[in-house]
Write a structure and sequence with these properties.
324 residues; alpha/beta; Quinone Oxidoreductase, Chain A, domain 1; Rossmann fold; 2 domains; 7-stranded mixed β-sheet; 10 helices; globular
C-alpha cells in the first residue's frame, strides 16, 4: 500500500490526513510514478479550504518529481527508470506513489535533482510565463514584484535580472528583504509599513511601473493598481491574503487606462509544445546556474499539517518540499 495525504472536508490544515491507498497498475496512456519529492505550494491551501472546489474526499498537491516505475499501453515516450517532474491536475501529489496521465509528465534533465524539480516546476513555470509570455518586457523596464522572497518571487527576480529589468520587490520582514536582495531585487519595500504606491513613484521618477506582479491579492490590489504607469498591466496571479476585490471598469480608466489580468499557469502550459519550450528554458537556466532554487524547508509527508501551518503563517521562504 502507498501512503497519501487526503482530506474529506474543507477547512484548516487539520483536515489533512495521512492514509493508506491502493495505487494499482497504469492503464492506457498512464504511468505509475514513485515520488522522491513533492512540491508544497500556496495554491494547495486553496483546494484544502474550498476556494478551488474539488470532489471530496480528495488527494492533495499538484506538483511532484520522481521515477517512472511502470507504463501503460500506448506510452512510448517514457520508460521505467526515467526521472520525471510535473505540475497540474489531477490532485494527489502528496503521496509516495501514484498513477497519472503520461502526457502530464516532463522528462527531467540529468543535472536537475528531484528535490530541485519538486521545488521549482510550478514556481519556475509560473515565473517563465510571467517573464516570457505575460507582457513584452524589455531591458531597462522596472517591474513591481510582490512576495519577492517567496518561491515564485525568488525565481522571477533572478530571471528579471537576466532580462535586464529593474525589480522593486515587496517583503514583510528584514530577513526576507536580505534574501530578496541576494536574488536580484534592486529596491525593497516593506509593504505593511510603507506606502507602496508612493515608494514606487519615488523610485520611478513619478512614472510608475509598466507591470506589477501581485500574488497577494486582497491586501495589495489597490496599491498595486496605484503603482502602475499609464496603460500599465496588473497581473493578479495569486490570492495569499484573500480574493481580489470586484473590479469597476471605470477605476481602470481613472488609474490611467490600465489593464488587469488574472492568469492561470494551466493556460500557459496546456499546449505540449509551449510547455516543453518554457520548461526547457527554465531547466536550462537552472542547470547552468543562472537561476538557483533554494529548498529552504523540508517536511516529511506525514508532517503536511505543520507544512500548511507554516505556509499560511508566512514562516516559509523560497521553495518547500515534502519528502515521501
Amino acid at each position: 500500500m502507498a501512503k497519501a495525504i487526503r482530506f474529506h472536508e474543507t477547512g484548516g490544515p487539520d483536515v489533512l490526513r495521512l492514509e493508506d491507498v491502493e495505487v494499482g497498475e497504469p492503464g492506457p496512456g498512464e504511468v505509475r510514478v514513485r515520488h522522491e519529492a513533492v512540491g508544497l505550494n500556496f495554491a494547495d491551501t486553496y483546494f484544502r479550504t474550498g476556494l478551488y472546489p474539488a470532489p471530496l474526499p480528495a488527494g492533495m498537491g499538484v506538483e511532484g518529481a520522481g521515477v517512472v516505475e511502470a507504463v501503460g499501453e500506448g506510452v512510448t515516450h517514457l520508460a521505467p527508470g526515467d526521472r520525471v517532474t510535473y505540475t497540474g491536475s489531477p490532485l494527489g501529489a502528496y503521496s509516495t506513489e501514484r498513477v497519472m496521465p503520461a502526457g502530464s509528465l516532463i522528462a527531467l534533465p540529468d543535472p536537475i535533482s528531484c528535490e530541485t524539480a519538486a521545488g521549482s516546476t510550478m514556481r519556475g513555470l509560473t515565473a517563465a510565463y510571467l517573464m516570457r509570455r505575460i507582457a513584452p518586457l524589455k531591458a531597462g523596464d522596472t517591474i513591481l514584484l510582490h512576495a519577492a522572497a517567496g518561491g515564485v518571487g525568488l525565481i522571477v527576480a533572478q530571471w528579471a535580472k537576466l532580462l535586464g529589468l529593474t525589480v522593486i520587490g515587496t517583503v514583510s520582514t528584514e530577513q526576507k528583504a536580505e534574501l530578496a536582495r541576494a536574488h536580484g531585487v534592486d529596491h525593497v519595500v516593506f509593504y505593511r509599513r510603507e506606502n507602496l504606491a508612493e515608494r514606487v513613484r519615488e523610485l520611478t521618477d513619478g512614472a510608475g511601473v509598466p507591470v506589477a506582479l501581485d500574488s497577494i491579492g486582497q491586501d495589495t490590489f489597490a496599491s498595486s493598481l496605484a503603482s502602475l504607469k499609464r496603460r500599465g498591466l496588473l497581473v493578479c496571479f495569486g490570492t495569499a491574503s484573500g480574493p481580489v476585490p470586484p473590479i469597476d471598469a471605470m477605476q481602470l480608466a481613472l488609474a490611467g487606462s490600465v489593464f488587469v489580468t488574472r492568469p492561470a499557469l494551466a493556460d500557459y502550459i496546456a499546449d505540449p509544445a509551449e510547455r516543453a519550450e518554457l520548461s526547457g528554458e527554465l531547466f536550462g537556466h537552472v542547470a547552468a546556474g543562472r537561476i538557483t532554487v533554494g529548498i529552504n524547508q523540508r517536511y516529511a509527508l506525514a508532517d503536511a499539517v505543520r507544512a500548511h501551518q507554516d505556509l499560511e503563517s508566512g514562516r516559509t521562504t523560497g521553495s518547500s518540499v515534502l519528502i515521501p
